[in-house]
Amino acid sequence: MIMDVDVVGILIRGFAAYTFLLLFTRLLGRQLISQMTLFEYVVGITIGSLAADMTLAGSDNFWDGALALAVWIVLPILLGWFTLRSFWLRKIVEGEPSIIIVNGTIDKQALQRHRFNLDDLLSNLREQGVFNLHDIEFAILETDGSVSVLQKSQKRPVTPEDLHLSTSYTGLPTTLLEDGQIIEHRLREIRLSKEWLLTQLRNRGIKDINEVFIAQIDTEGKLYVDLKKDGPK
Protein backbone atom coordinates (compact mmCIF):
# COMPACT_ATOMS: atom_id res chain seq x y z
CA MET A 1 0.00 0.00 0.00
CA ILE A 2 1.43 3.35 -1.04
CA MET A 3 0.82 6.13 1.45
CA ASP A 4 0.15 9.66 0.31
CA VAL A 5 3.11 11.88 1.16
CA ASP A 6 2.81 15.65 1.22
CA VAL A 7 6.16 16.24 -0.47
CA VAL A 8 5.58 19.93 -1.12
CA GLY A 9 4.40 20.51 2.45
CA ILE A 10 7.43 18.70 3.89
CA LEU A 11 9.78 20.73 1.70
CA ILE A 12 8.16 24.01 2.71
CA ARG A 13 8.09 23.13 6.42
CA GLY A 14 11.65 21.81 6.22
CA PHE A 15 12.88 25.06 4.69
CA ALA A 16 10.95 27.09 7.28
CA ALA A 17 12.27 24.96 10.16
CA TYR A 18 15.81 25.32 8.82
CA THR A 19 15.37 29.10 8.64
CA PHE A 20 13.96 29.24 12.18
CA LEU A 21 16.83 27.12 13.46
CA LEU A 22 19.43 29.27 11.71
CA LEU A 23 18.00 32.52 13.06
CA PHE A 24 17.49 31.24 16.59
CA THR A 25 20.94 29.65 16.87
CA ARG A 26 22.50 32.90 15.67
CA LEU A 27 20.72 34.58 18.58
CA LEU A 28 21.90 31.84 20.91
CA GLY A 29 25.52 32.53 19.99
CA ARG A 30 28.50 30.19 19.88
CA GLN A 31 28.20 28.72 23.32
CA LEU A 32 26.71 25.45 22.07
CA ILE A 33 29.60 24.73 19.71
CA SER A 34 32.51 25.54 21.98
CA GLN A 35 33.25 23.41 25.03
CA MET A 36 29.68 22.39 25.80
CA THR A 37 28.63 21.36 29.26
CA LEU A 38 26.32 18.35 29.55
CA PHE A 39 23.29 20.62 29.95
CA GLU A 40 24.20 22.64 26.85
CA TYR A 41 24.62 19.39 24.91
CA VAL A 42 21.12 18.26 25.93
CA VAL A 43 19.70 21.66 24.93
CA GLY A 44 21.34 21.38 21.51
CA ILE A 45 19.94 17.88 20.93
CA THR A 46 16.46 19.01 22.01
CA ILE A 47 16.52 22.02 19.66
CA GLY A 48 17.53 19.80 16.74
CA SER A 49 14.79 17.30 17.59
CA LEU A 50 12.15 20.04 17.71
CA ALA A 51 13.28 21.36 14.32
CA ALA A 52 12.95 17.85 12.84
CA ASP A 53 9.46 17.48 14.35
CA MET A 54 8.45 20.80 12.77
CA THR A 55 9.41 19.43 9.35
CA LEU A 56 7.32 16.26 9.66
CA ALA A 57 4.38 17.76 11.55
CA GLY A 58 1.25 18.73 9.71
CA SER A 59 0.65 22.33 8.76
CA ASP A 60 -1.75 22.71 11.70
CA ASN A 61 0.99 21.76 14.19
CA PHE A 62 3.85 23.67 12.56
CA TRP A 63 3.42 26.84 14.59
CA ASP A 64 3.15 24.81 17.80
CA GLY A 65 6.59 23.39 17.01
CA ALA A 66 7.91 26.85 16.14
CA LEU A 67 6.71 28.17 19.50
CA ALA A 68 8.32 25.25 21.34
CA LEU A 69 11.57 25.83 19.43
CA ALA A 70 11.48 29.52 20.33
CA VAL A 71 11.02 28.65 24.02
CA TRP A 72 14.02 26.31 23.97
CA ILE A 73 16.13 29.01 22.32
CA VAL A 74 15.03 31.92 24.50
CA LEU A 75 15.41 30.09 27.83
CA PRO A 76 19.15 29.32 27.35
CA ILE A 77 19.70 32.94 26.28
CA LEU A 78 18.01 34.20 29.46
CA LEU A 79 19.83 31.64 31.58
CA GLY A 80 23.15 32.68 30.03
CA TRP A 81 22.37 36.33 30.73
CA PHE A 82 21.63 35.60 34.40
CA THR A 83 24.65 33.31 34.87
CA LEU A 84 26.93 36.05 33.53
CA ARG A 85 25.75 38.26 36.38
CA SER A 86 25.45 35.74 39.19
CA PHE A 87 28.40 33.71 40.44
CA TRP A 88 26.19 31.44 42.54
CA LEU A 89 23.74 30.73 39.72
CA ARG A 90 26.65 29.99 37.39
CA LYS A 91 28.05 27.61 39.98
CA ILE A 92 24.70 25.79 40.25
CA VAL A 93 24.04 25.57 36.51
CA GLU A 94 27.55 24.93 35.17
CA GLY A 95 29.28 23.45 38.20
CA GLU A 96 32.88 24.28 39.00
CA PRO A 97 36.30 22.84 38.11
CA SER A 98 37.70 20.14 40.36
CA ILE A 99 41.33 19.26 41.09
CA ILE A 100 41.83 15.55 40.39
CA ILE A 101 45.64 15.21 40.48
CA VAL A 102 48.03 16.87 42.92
CA ASN A 103 51.78 16.31 42.67
CA GLY A 104 51.33 13.14 40.63
CA THR A 105 48.73 11.63 42.98
CA ILE A 106 45.20 10.98 41.69
CA ASP A 107 42.31 12.05 43.91
CA LYS A 108 40.18 8.90 43.64
CA GLN A 109 37.28 10.42 45.57
CA ALA A 110 37.11 13.34 43.13
CA LEU A 111 36.99 10.91 40.20
CA GLN A 112 34.17 8.96 41.84
CA ARG A 113 32.29 12.13 42.74
CA HIS A 114 32.32 13.28 39.11
CA ARG A 115 31.87 9.74 37.70
CA PHE A 116 35.07 10.19 35.67
CA ASN A 117 36.84 6.89 35.13
CA LEU A 118 40.58 6.25 34.96
CA ASP A 119 40.58 5.39 31.25
CA ASP A 120 39.01 8.74 30.37
CA LEU A 121 41.55 10.54 32.55
CA LEU A 122 44.54 8.81 30.94
CA SER A 123 43.11 9.43 27.47
CA ASN A 124 42.73 13.16 28.18
CA LEU A 125 46.29 13.32 29.49
CA ARG A 126 47.70 11.55 26.43
CA GLU A 127 45.91 14.00 24.14
CA GLN A 128 47.94 16.75 25.83
CA GLY A 129 51.19 14.85 25.44
CA VAL A 130 51.41 13.78 29.09
CA PHE A 131 52.08 10.07 29.55
CA ASN A 132 53.65 9.96 33.01
CA LEU A 133 51.47 10.81 36.00
CA HIS A 134 54.59 11.63 38.00
CA ASP A 135 55.22 14.62 35.68
CA ILE A 136 51.96 16.32 36.71
CA GLU A 137 51.83 19.07 39.33
CA PHE A 138 48.09 19.68 39.01
CA ALA A 139 45.30 18.33 36.79
CA ILE A 140 41.89 19.98 36.83
CA LEU A 141 38.63 18.50 35.55
CA GLU A 142 36.81 21.36 33.82
CA THR A 143 33.04 21.81 33.73
CA ASP A 144 32.87 20.65 30.10
CA GLY A 145 34.63 17.35 30.89
CA SER A 146 38.06 18.31 29.57
CA VAL A 147 41.20 18.07 31.69
CA SER A 148 43.68 20.94 32.13
CA VAL A 149 47.21 19.97 33.11
CA LEU A 150 50.05 21.88 34.76
CA GLN A 151 53.25 19.88 34.52
CA LYS A 152 56.01 20.10 37.07
CA SER A 153 58.42 22.95 36.38
CA GLN A 154 61.29 20.67 35.39
CA LYS A 155 59.07 18.93 32.83
CA ARG A 156 57.74 22.04 31.07
CA PRO A 157 59.18 23.12 27.70
CA VAL A 158 61.97 25.68 27.89
CA THR A 159 60.89 29.20 26.88
CA PRO A 160 62.99 32.18 25.70
CA GLU A 161 62.26 33.81 29.06
CA ASP A 162 63.86 30.86 30.85
CA LEU A 163 67.00 31.41 28.75
CA HIS A 164 66.85 35.20 29.22
CA LEU A 165 66.49 35.74 25.46
CA SER A 166 64.75 38.78 23.99
CA THR A 167 62.06 38.21 21.36
CA SER A 168 60.27 40.46 18.89
CA TYR A 169 56.52 41.00 18.86
CA THR A 170 54.56 38.55 16.71
CA GLY A 171 50.93 39.45 16.12
CA LEU A 172 48.23 37.90 14.01
CA PRO A 173 48.56 38.10 10.21
CA THR A 174 45.91 40.00 8.28
CA THR A 175 44.17 38.32 5.35
CA LEU A 176 44.00 40.81 2.48
CA LEU A 177 42.77 38.60 -0.34
CA GLU A 178 40.79 35.40 -0.18
CA ASP A 179 39.71 33.20 -3.08
CA GLY A 180 40.24 35.99 -5.60
CA GLN A 181 38.35 38.61 -3.54
CA ILE A 182 40.17 41.63 -2.09
CA ILE A 183 39.07 42.43 1.48
CA GLU A 184 39.26 46.21 1.26
CA HIS A 185 38.23 47.07 4.83
CA ARG A 186 41.21 45.12 6.15
CA LEU A 187 43.51 47.04 3.84
CA ARG A 188 42.11 50.26 5.29
CA GLU A 189 42.58 48.99 8.85
CA ILE A 190 46.34 48.62 8.31
CA ARG A 191 46.55 51.79 6.18
CA LEU A 192 47.28 50.09 2.88
CA SER A 193 45.54 50.53 -0.46
CA LYS A 194 44.15 48.23 -3.11
CA GLU A 195 46.68 49.67 -5.56
CA TRP A 196 49.54 48.74 -3.22
CA LEU A 197 48.33 45.14 -3.06
CA LEU A 198 47.90 44.88 -6.83
CA THR A 199 51.41 46.29 -7.32
CA GLN A 200 52.84 43.69 -4.95
CA LEU A 201 51.07 40.93 -6.86
CA ARG A 202 52.31 42.23 -10.22
CA ASN A 203 55.86 42.30 -8.86
CA ARG A 204 55.46 38.58 -8.22
CA GLY A 205 54.21 37.95 -11.74
CA ILE A 206 50.53 37.70 -10.79
CA LYS A 207 48.37 39.66 -13.21
CA ASP A 208 44.93 38.30 -12.28
CA ILE A 209 43.76 38.32 -8.64
CA ASN A 210 41.51 35.36 -9.43
CA GLU A 211 44.68 33.27 -9.49
CA VAL A 212 45.21 33.95 -5.77
CA PHE A 213 43.80 31.56 -3.18
CA ILE A 214 44.90 33.62 -0.17
CA ALA A 215 47.19 36.58 0.54
CA GLN A 216 48.23 37.61 4.06
CA ILE A 217 50.54 40.20 5.55
CA ASP A 218 52.22 39.76 8.93
CA THR A 219 53.12 42.38 11.53
CA GLU A 220 56.60 42.72 10.02
CA GLY A 221 55.14 43.67 6.63
CA LYS A 222 55.94 40.39 4.89
CA LEU A 223 53.37 39.41 2.27
CA TYR A 224 52.44 35.75 1.86
CA VAL A 225 50.65 34.71 -1.33
CA ASP A 226 49.30 31.24 -2.13
CA LEU A 227 47.99 30.57 -5.64
CA LYS A 228 45.07 28.30 -6.47
CA LYS A 229 47.11 26.13 -8.84
CA ASP A 230 50.62 26.43 -7.45
CA GLY A 231 52.15 26.75 -4.01
CA PRO A 232 53.23 29.90 -2.14
CA LYS A 233 54.72 32.65 -4.31
Automatic annotation (TrEMBL):
Cellular component GO terms, alphabetical: plasma membrane
Gene3D superfamilies in UniProt: bsu07140 like domains
Membrane topology listed for this record: Multi-pass membrane protein
Signal peptide positions on this chain: none
UniProt-annotated location(s): Cell membrane
Main location: membrane
Transmembrane intervals: 6-29, 65-84
Protein name: Membrane protein
Organism: Heliorestis convoluta
